[in-house]
Amino acid sequence: MPGPLGPGEVRVRVTSVGVCGTDITVWSGQTARGRPGTVLGHEFGGRVIARADDVRGVGIHDLVAVDPNVSCGICAHCGRGHRARCAGRRLMGVDLDGGFQRTVDVPVGQLVPAPGADPRALGLIEPLAVGVHAVARAGVADGDRLGVIGGGPIGMASVAEARRRGADHTVLERDETRRTAIARTGAAAVAAGGWPDHGLDAVIDTVGRAATVRAALDAVRDGGTVCVVGLSHDDHLPPPDQLVRREVTLTGSFCYSTADLRIAAQIVVGQGLDTVPVDLTAGLERVPDLLDRIGGGLMGRGKALVVPRAEGPTA
């Protein structure tokens, strides 16, 4: 049984958890980060089922996503809503217990309201915010032409935000199953052999390898922006003359701000499970096998979401 809530805490019954690459690296032992016994899952949301006596502004049964970045709350970055930049940041699902469990107790300040959302889709809000932030970092505006390298969850999150901003978008994706799923969203999806055209205003690279950064630079117009989101570790910085002579802006994008999370929540409230291609799995007991399969390279058509309880039909 859960213990008593601490001051300023709420208890969330989890209704949706996303599987992220971070979960895979911790589960498979590819990183030393993460204490043994820590519950994974930093992309999650659910229903508020209890609150401490001092909590105000949150109701029982409210639908919420959870910002998994637990920060100091007093530094300049926290004051600007950029918890992920806080030097004292701890991540739920890695440094603290996360969402692959029935209930989670969290500080009320971590909640992202999502009234009226499909409870099964709440796990999309956190990864969607990564795409929202990347599109902002790329400076994408109404009428721009955006290219996205990689049609996985972050790539398609970027597409969702680009669509909201009124930008045209093309996705470069090598996997045929994912290309089919992407096309059903209304986005143009092309094979990884090359872009149908060049002169794009911005390119978001969700892979971050040397070859994909080169592909992004080849596709962007002079004076455009390449935004790298993918966290690879190979040597991929371009020669400076490519940036200088063409006046291309090369920038990075990490995580999101509180404002990005709120925009992502609005999108998910409106679009639910149609926000990005999704693969639903029912039951927490299936998580270990799911992590093994994804870690072994057996990816589905889109974002892997786990529904711990019966919140509706699953595929």
Features:
6-stranded parallel beta sheet; Rossmann fold; alpha/beta; 7-stranded mixed beta sheet; 315 residues; 15 strands; Quinone Oxidoreductase, Chain A, domain 1; 2 domains
How would you sum up this structure, described in words?
The chain is an alpha/beta fold. Helix content is 27%, strand content 24%. It has nine helices and 15 strands. Strands 1, 2, 3, 6, 7, 14 and 15 form a seven-stranded mixed sheet that branches. It has a six-stranded parallel sheet with strand order 10-9-8-11-12-13, with helices on both faces. It has a two-stranded antiparallel ribbon with strand order 4-5. β9, α5 and β10 form a beta-alpha-beta unit. The longest helix has 14 residues. The protein is globular. Its EC number is 1.1.1.329. Pathway: Metabolic intermediate biosynthesis; 2-deoxystreptamine biosynthesis; 2-deoxystreptamine from D-glucose 6-phosphate: step 3/4.
